Amino acid sequence: MDTKDLLNDSSIHHGRNLVCLMNRKGFKVEDLEKALQLSQKQVEELTEMKKEAGE
Prior knowledge:
- There is one protein chain.
- This protein has helices spanning about 5-25, 30-55.
- It is mainly alpha-helical.
- The chain has one domain.
- The protein is flat and about 45 Å long.
- The model has no long low-confidence stretch (mean pLDDT about 80).
């Protein structure tokens, strides 16, 4: 097992823990997906604004 394998195992483990915690708190995975999509949209908007400012 190398570092990459260990990281993958760790990420899967933390992901499962996150889902369990979210379920206990009443959140759903869809809520997390929506938040991540919103963050991605904000990143895209900021990138576009920087491009326009640089032109």
